[in-house]
Amino acid sequence: xxxxxxxxxxxxxxxxxxxxxxxxxxxxxxxxxxxxxxxxxxxxxxxxxxxxxxxxxxxxxxxxxxxxxxxxxxxxxxxxxxxxxxxxxxxxxxxxxxxxxxxxxxxxxxxxxxxxxxxxxxxxxxxxxxxxxxxxxxxxxxxxxxxxxxxxxxxxxxxxxxxxxxxxxxxxxxxxxxxxxxxxxxxxxxxxxxxxxxxxxxxxxxxxxxxxxxxxxxxxxxxxxxxxxxxxxxxxxxxxxxxxxxxxxxxxxxxxxxxxxxxxxxxxxxxxxxxxxxxxxxxxxxxxxxxxxxxxxxxxxxxxxxxxxxxxxxxxxxxxxxxxxxxxxxxxxxxxxxxxxxxxxxxxxxxxxxxxxxxxxxxxxxxxxxxxxxxxxxxxxxxxxxxxxxxxxxxxxxxxxxxxxxxxxxxxxxxxxxxxxxxxxxxxxxxxxxxxxxxxxxxxxxxxxxxxxxxxxxxxxxxxxxxxxxxxxxxxxxxxxxxxxxxxxxxxxxxxxxxxxxxxxxxxxxxxxxxxxxxxxxxxxxxxxxxxxxx
Length: 535
Hints:
The chain has helices spanning about 5-10, 15-35, 75-90, 90-110, 130-135, 165-230, 235-270, 300, 305-325, 370-435, 440-475, 480-485; strands spanning about 115-125, 145-160, 330-340, 355-360. It is an alpha+beta fold. The chain has a single domain (about 5-40, about 75-500), classed as Outer membrane efflux proteins (OEP) (Up-down Bundle), CATH 1.20.1600. The longest helix is centred in the middle third of the chain and has 67 residues, at about 165-230. Mean pLDDT is about 80; it is low at about 1-30, about 30-35 and about 490-535.
């Protein structure tokens, strides 16, 4: 019987020829890989959709501000600092950025299958078999045997049908969709911080109106009580003034509660613990940003949600190619090169060199619907992604039109409310004069004041609503300002609340002495100077 070791030595003379053959196979395979750049899936093309030529409610005066930091148009440095702080500290932005890194890692993992995988290994074994069994099969060989190996290995799946390339394309599209999600988070964050600050300043205005009105009502109530004591007015008038005062007093705790809740919500957006928020300009001092110019067709390139939906469609389209590639065989090349010896000290001698190479081809014959089912699934997913994209586009057009019409109509409503408040102020003054002259009962004055006070609160709400509607227009239209905001991430210090004494608005819950109260708004009842004399 031939000694296995002698047989191994004899075969070493053909190593050169075998290596040349292996290199030839490798070169042919590489050539096939380089020339087979096609995939089996459909080539992606952006769907054709009917796009309106212009927005229905775009105002006559617009500005080229879609690619600028539009929030600076409010003219409030405090708001600018709040937005910069939110971009730096907000946890939703950090989560979105981590998700992008995760998606990028998946792309790297998927693409790695396009290239040969090289590894290493080592093993050692010592074994003993029964003497009888070993002597019969291999006479003259020692019973205890040792085997040691150290080798480099390589494997490569030839992507002839584009399966791995299709999976890589899908992974890249998913990564880009995740990036658009991150940009969408930035868009939402900036607009939400701006709206929250505007609402907060609107509530501050309502609180100031309520406190000034309450102070005026308190002075009137004290005056009527004094007049009643000396017989100049009836007890009904006193009771009516007290009810008017308490009605106004009930508004203040409600507004104060809303202010605290709004501050807490804004603190969370800033990535901070709940606490007071610094104030800048009042709601009436904030400038209204100009509406950005833009065409409906530009939304396809400006809104992150549309770009995200399109990348989802690209990914679903690529999955079809990966599924169809399963119909065809997979071709793999494997090889190993190293040393093998029965003695560890002689492992790396040239005579102990060992190698192998080979190829494998495997493909389906009867899968009973396994492959066709995957193809059908991927095609259905592509149709769903297409419908989602078309729905997103139409919804985007609706969002812009809704934001534009709201901006237009809320502005008209604000102007009408200003005229209403002016008329009610005049009505309240005339009613007060007639009551002082004895021509009308106090109920007329009470009715005028009860109508004026809520109208003033609504006016403060509408001032905030007009500014918020401009913010919503920028949010709906998207644009390069998202990249401007993205550049601010990590470039701003943390905002801290200024001391209450430095704020434009008194802290919530702080009572303002009547003598130190702010000047009541025009039309607020001011009691006449009447001196009571003892009878």
